[in-house]
Amino acid sequence: MQDTPTAQAKSETLGHGYYFEDLKEGMEESFSKVISEKDVDEFAVLSGDVNPVHLSDEFAGGTIFKKRIAHGFLTGSLISTVLGTKLPGPGCIYLGQDLKFMAPVYLGDEVTATVTIQGLDPDKRRVVLNCVCSVDGKAVLSGIAVVMVDSRNKKR
């Protein structure tokens, strides 16, 4: 699958993210997005998760949520946006992620994904980040991510 020209053009303007030597515990970055019906519908097609709680007003109305909810991994994917574009940014390699889904995200909610560096392993160039997605200041998802980051010293 090829990048769309828009995605490729955006990628080319980012440049390289932080190098390991530039990172410090406590550094933090965020990304916010309003989750639209189109986002949920397209994520269902892309992922194959066509659970009607995400796609059918009638079905979702009969659940504990009372209306359609976004896919948990659509919400969690905003963490990848922060990691890959801001902190540590382009060039980092996503190694692992644990997630806890704490509350639903509804169509029209603005989700803010925030990552904070909580640990650094210089020997392996690993960065451990606390990750939280929130809506109106309330956590809806939390977890820990581990990424590998380039060093300026290429011998590592």
TrEMBL record:
It comes from Methyloligella halotolerans. This is (R)-specific enoyl-CoA hydratase. One of its GO terms (biological process) is fatty acid biosynthetic process. It is an enzyme of class 4 (lyase). The keyword Lyase applies. Its EC number is 4.2.1.119. Transmembrane segments: none annotated. Keywords: Lyase. InterPro entries: HotDog_dom_sf, MaoC-like_dom, UPF0336/Enoyl-CoA_hydratase. Signal peptide: none annotated. It comes from the Bacteria. Gene3D superfamilies: Hotdog Thioesterase. Residues 27-121 form the MaoC-like domain. It holds the Pfam family MaoC_dehydratas. One of its GO terms (molecular function) is (3R)-hydroxyacyl-[acyl-carrier-protein] dehydratase activity. The lineage of its organism: Bacteria, Pseudomonadati, Pseudomonadota, Alphaproteobacteria, Hyphomicrobiales.
